[in-house]
Amino acid sequence: MNKEILHIKNMVCPRCIASVEDILHELNYSVEQVLLGEAVLNETLSVNQLAVLKDKLLKQGFELLEDKKDKIVEAVKTHVIQLVKNPDKHSSTKLSTYLSKELGYDYSHISSLFTASQHITIEKYVILQKIEYVKELLSYNELTVSEISDTLNYSSVAALSAQFKSITGITPSKFKSSDQARKSLDNLIP
């Protein structure tokens, strides 16, 4: 049985996975698994089937990626989101080493592709993702800024606060008491 791996842009959360699974099942495709950024099918799709799938994905805010460079950039985004949401999983591994290992390319190649495509560095993208996650954690009102700092492996509360303020223009405490909206993870880059 032939397998086909589809790379899908704008998948950033478990609800995205469920939405893509629903689309694939609605089209009666044999699905092995769906992960952030990709779906593995137990069949090869025809050109017509791919066109129908592209259309259905677009209607839900997703995009089927076909260009190799786009696939690498989207894979970087997916891995960064996973690292930010699970900081202890790879806390001892350098980002460059982790991405090179996971994607099978030299980090300088990955970094160049990402920067050319997104107009920001991977490191800046990581910071934007971390700050959005800090906003999410603050909005739940379950952790203190100090606990969030520890959870996300910041060197100190001051380091977190300084980075937060440089990105948002306000301190974490001000954000917590304001009505500022969070950004969608797939729209962090202008």
Automatic annotation (TrEMBL):
PROSITE patterns named in the record: HTH_ARAC_FAMILY_1 (PS00041), HTH_ARAC_FAMILY_2 (PS01124)
Domain called HTH araC/xylS-type: residue spans: 99-178
Entries under InterPro entries matching the protein: Homeodomain-like_sf, HTH_AraC, HTH_AraC-typ_CS
Keyword flag Nucleotide-binding: no
MF terms (GO), sorted A to Z: DNA-binding transcription factor activity; sequence-specific DNA binding
Pfam families noted in UniProt: HTH_18
Position of the signal peptide: none
Keyword DNA-binding included in the entry's annotation: yes
Alphabetic keyword roster: DNA-binding, Transcription, Transcription regulation
Protein name as annotated: Transcriptional regulator, AraC family
